[in-house]
Amino acid sequence: MTRLFENIRTKIEAGARVSDAEALALFESNDLLAVGELAALANRRRNGDRVFFNVNRHINYTNLCVNRCTFCAFCREVEDEGCYTLALNDILEKAAEAVAAGATEIHMVGGLHPDLPFDFYLEMLAALRADSPQLHIKAFTAVEIDYFAGLTGQSVEQVIDELRGAGLGSMPGGGAEIFAAEVRQKICPEKISGERWLEVTEKVHRSGLKTNATMLFGHLEGYGDRVDHLGRLRTLQDATGGFQAFIPLAFQPDNTRVPGAKGVGGADALKTLAISRIYLDNFDHVKAYWVMLGLKIAQVSLAFGVNDIDGTVVEEKIGHDAGAASPQALSKEQLCAMIRKAGRTPVERDTLYNELTVC
Ligand code: V47
User: Fold this and answer.
1) In this structure, which residue's CA is closest to atom 2 in ligand 1?
2) Nearest residue CA, atom 12 of ligand 1?
3) In terms of CB atoms within 10 Å, which of 44, 126, 161, 264 comes out highest?
4) Going residue by residue through the chain (359 aa), what tens digit of pLDDT does each one get?
């Protein structure tokens, strides 16, 4: 094991790439602190001691979804109690509240609604841009883009062009789940394949839009599936350079239908964040999404290679419907204090990682 850590340290110092076999060996290691130290080294060389956050607001415009992913506690069918679709005015009001609270971004995703036409999404973007031009709209995922292409009969490229024309600024990293087909088939059988997610994302990057990438972990996948997932992202990033941040999402099991899944422990969460930092040498940012990790693990992860702690969020449904114990919102001051108390320098950023203020 010591030899493994020495070899990886040498690679990090030389700017050389860690192999899949080495990443797997790190997952299989129980020396959490040694893994974390390597990740902290990789991050320090790239990002110094600064840690990013942003002031944002999530808006989930609908929870109606034609897919029935077993890991998802958020989605509903039309006849289900608790299903909703926000009216355009409500969406605009939430965005206006975000502006008043100093937000620079809205993060908008929703279910694959059975009936809403593509024009609804174009109108929503255009109205948001007209009403709140100072907000960057980060919305939809490769899953929605593929769905819109199917709805309209247009190519993925045409769909992206129209969304961009209406105000789309970038895309979050959701819908990636785990690419490995056998597990994907069990947790989201109707969702587009991992290959299709990567293909659509490549087209989004080629159109000039930045995206993030996620990995849902702690359900039925094994370490090999995680390494496979990271490997496919690293390969696509080599080709396009279009990913900004990688966000491992810790699975929340409540109200879901994944047999036997128990959720993610702190050690596994920290190890996964750390190995992501070590392996993804072509990603600038690894983000700890505090909603799924909890505040304490998110803060500790700053010593395990993480350099971004996401945002103020304000209203979160996907994780909380599945039992996330984190708060709904954090203030800018709380985020700054979390980062400062971990001995790091908090930097407010915008969606595209322009630095706004050090707090
Ligand atoms: O795509 C669904 C995941 C994602 C559960 O790009 C679950 O900046 C845990 O993608 N337990 C949506 N995770 C959230 C997302 C995201 C969040 C924050 C920042 C960014 C970004 C992206 O949440 C879904 C799915 O992978 N998810 N159900 C669950 N039970």
Assistant:
1) 72
2) 174
3) 264
4) 689 999 999 999 999 999 999 999 999 999 999 999 999 999 999 999 999 999 999 999 999 999 999 999 999 999 999 999 999 999 999 999 999 999 999 999 999 999 999 999 999 999 999 999 999 999 999 999 999 999 999 999 999 999 999 999 999 999 999 999 999 999 999 999 999 999 999 999 999 999 999 999 999 999 999 999 999 999 999 999 999 999 999 999 999 999 988 889 999 999 999 999 999 999 999 999 999 999 999 999 999 999 999 999 999 999 999 999 999 999 999 999 999 999 999 999 999 999 999 99
> What range defines the domain where residue 166 resides?
2-358
Query: 274 C-alpha to center of ligand 1: Å?
Result: 19
pTM of the model: 0.98
Burial of 29 (0-12, 13-18, 19+ CB in 10 A): middle
Provide the number of structural domains found in the chain: 1
C-alpha–C-alpha distance, residues 58 and 314, integer Å: 7
Residue 105's closest CA among 288, 314, 347?
A: 314
Ligand 1 atom nearest to 216, measured from its CA = 26
Q: What is the CATH number of the domain that holds 229?
A: 3.20.20.70
> What is the chain's Cα-based Rg?
19
